[in-house]
Amino acid sequence: MNQALLWGIGMVALGGILQGSFAAPMRRMPAWRWENSWLLFALSGLIIFPWIVNFSSVPNVTRVYAGSSPSTLIKVLVFGVLWGVGATLFGLAISRVGMALGFALILGITSSFGSLIPMAILQPDQLLAKRGLALIAGSAVMLLGLVFLALAGRAREHDLRMGKSVRSGFAFGLVLCIFSGIFSSMMNFSFVFGDELRLRALHSGASSAMAANPIWALTVTGGFVPNLLYCVYLLNKNRTWSVFREGKTPTCWLLGILMGLLWFGGTVLYGVGAASLGALGGIVGWPIFMTIDIIAALFWGAVSGEWQGARRRALVYNWAGVGILLVAIVIISAGNVT
CB neighbours of 160 closer than 8 A, spacing ≥ 6? Predict the structure, then answer.
């Protein structure tokens, strides 16, 4: 395995750890409602940090956008808005099924959609090559892991609410996870189909590590719109605007900003790593990124006590699912060894 490949996988993995940790601070914000913490995360992680990084790392970034084709800009924005719908559903889903299970189901679906579909469209000849076969096999193994994780989550719900009605709540949360996973894959669509922006950023003098930032900034700006609209709707409906001034306000503000920093920091590192993986970096790096993301979220879910009270069966399903996800990473990585 060459040095560039190791570097790329390492950066993708580190990005996955950061993104898998971004929701953990919500556990320390009990004084705030979901819409309060999510709006602050969206503002910091989808607007403030992305544009600060974009303008500071890409020379003449306005010329990069001005020189790009309208079709590319429209694609990136549209995929960003669709991803934003998935991000909104993501926040709602993890509040119902838990951080560990929600991350696993949503990101597993996102991984499959976000890698296989772009390859089928852009590089159909690679589907039956070594990389393509490894990606298909790894995605299939990943889906098996997700089945085990779903079983673990269902068993956990049963153990924690013995004898109570849990089916309807779990079923609704599962539906949210599925739709969130499908829409969230649009983030990688923006990266893959917006490559013109990366190439123009390189031509403008940006480093290869930072050249994807014009894509990310535009994508998450589009994604900010549905998040903003839904949060404002809930703030008005629940009359929770005043929560921003109540409770442990300074701590909650810092934790909400930390959520945005962790999330976008993970996105930047994914872009750095994917660029090091070659022409198909955005395709083969995506499932690795998502898998590490899932494992990090499972870790934080365990630390926060989500699995306390669960019986052995649920824990066995959970760790079996984690082990299978790690096998999926090995398969996908092996397909890229030259």
Answer: 309, 310
Q: Quick one: tokens of 149? A: 């994780």
Q: CB within 8 A of 283, min separation 6: which ones? A: 115, 118, 119, 122, 123, 135, 192
Instruction: Look up residue 47 and give its DSSP letter.
Output: I
Burial class from Cβ neighbours inside 10 Å (0-12, 13-18, 19+) for residue 192 reads: buried
Confidence at 222, pLDDT banded by 50, 70, 90: very high
Rounded distance, CA 47 to CA 53, Å? Answer: 10
Taking the model in full, what pTM does it have?
0.75
Q: Which helix (H) or strand (E) holds 211?
A: none
Top-confidence residue, 90 or 170: 90
The tokens describing 272, both together, are 């750095």
pLDDT (0 to 100) of residue 168: 46
Chain segment 95-121, per-residue pLDDT in tens? 777 766 676 677 777 766 666 677 777
